[in-house]
């Protein structure tokens, strides 16, 4: 299971597994915490691994490639690897778990008939980007039941054949999904794939330079596009302007420093790229609903 995540690489999440022979993780996320440490609420990112988000309490909203999904307690969302996503809203009592694993878990072994016919055709090139799994149909109820069981199994790490039980349930979930969507997957254009790659470059540039006074022209140049195309990519993919994304990321970094250091709010403001403390406080409150001081007090 993943016990730590390297957050210094920017927007791409790279899980580090305790057991490299069993690369499956479960994280539990609330508004103010994530366990084990990783990418949590309001933290936009992407990763190569497949993810299932299961709402264990309350409700939340998740944005995947610009599309917003509203999930209630007991519902789930499949997110394909490589897609930019973020949890944009969560009820105060909200809690969700994220199961993350590489596609090879579903194919049994490299080059298998299962991998060639039933895994790669659905996961390659964003053919199946995201799938909302709701209560109401027998097929979806089956998947949700397995996700609930999976959460319970992770509460008994170390039990006999723990890894085997997790793997069997994941494959069972995937089998139900491909049966449900057979014949209904979308065709993906080259322009769509190109836009995803451009967005990753531009967002990574912002993350690498969020402390600096970067310009819109500099962001666009990284992906070799015009300023207008840059704006369009951000609008279509994450429903934000590049400037709003920059400010949001600065707030996220500010939250990290508020949680893990004793630095004064003024020092944190300048460290994350704000020119004055009042602007940082105003932006922080707009994004989180509370001042930096209140946020720190709520954490501790």
In short:
This is Transcriptional regulator, AraC family. This protein is of the alpha+beta class and 300 residues long.
Provide key terms for this protein.
single chain, 300 residues, alpha+beta, Jelly Rolls, Arc Repressor Mutant, subunit A, 2 domains, six-stranded antiparallel beta sheet, three-stranded antiparallel beta sheet, 11 helices, 45% helix, disordered N terminus
Count of extended strands:
11
Q: Tell me the CATH superfamily of the largest domain.
A: Regulatory protein AraC
H/E series? EEEEEEEEEEHHEHHHHHHHHH
State the separation between the terminal residues, measured CA to CA. 27 Å
Helix content: 40-55%
Poorly predicted regions are 1-9
The computed structural class is alpha+beta
How many domain units? 2
Structural features, described:
Residues 200-298 form the HTH araC/xylS-type domain. InterPro entries: Cupin_2, Homeodomain-like_sf, HTH_AraC, HTH_AraC-typ_CS, RmlC-like_jellyroll, RmlC_Cupin_sf, Tscrpt_reg_AraC-type_HTH. GO terms for molecular function: DNA-binding transcription factor activity; sequence-specific DNA binding. With 300 residues, this protein is α+β, with helices and mostly antiparallel strands. It folds into two domains: 2-181, Regulatory protein AraC (Jelly Rolls); 190-299, Arc Repressor Mutant, subunit A (Orthogonal Bundle). Helices cover 45% and strands 18% of the residues. It has helices spanning 104-107, 113-123, 138-154, 162-181, 190-208, 216-222, 227-238, 242-260, 265-271, 277-288, 292-299, and strands at residues 2-5, 15-17, 25-29, 34-35, 50-57, 59-64, 67-72, 76-79, 85-90, 95-101, 130-133. A six-stranded antiparallel β-sheet has the order 4-3-10-5-8-11, covered by helices on one side. Strands 7-6-9 form a three-stranded antiparallel β-sheet, with no helix packed on it. It has a two-stranded antiparallel ribbon with strand order 1-2. Helix 3 (138-154) packs antiparallel against helix 4 (162-181) and helix 8 (242-260) packs across helix 11. The model is unreliable at 1-9 (pLDDT under 50).
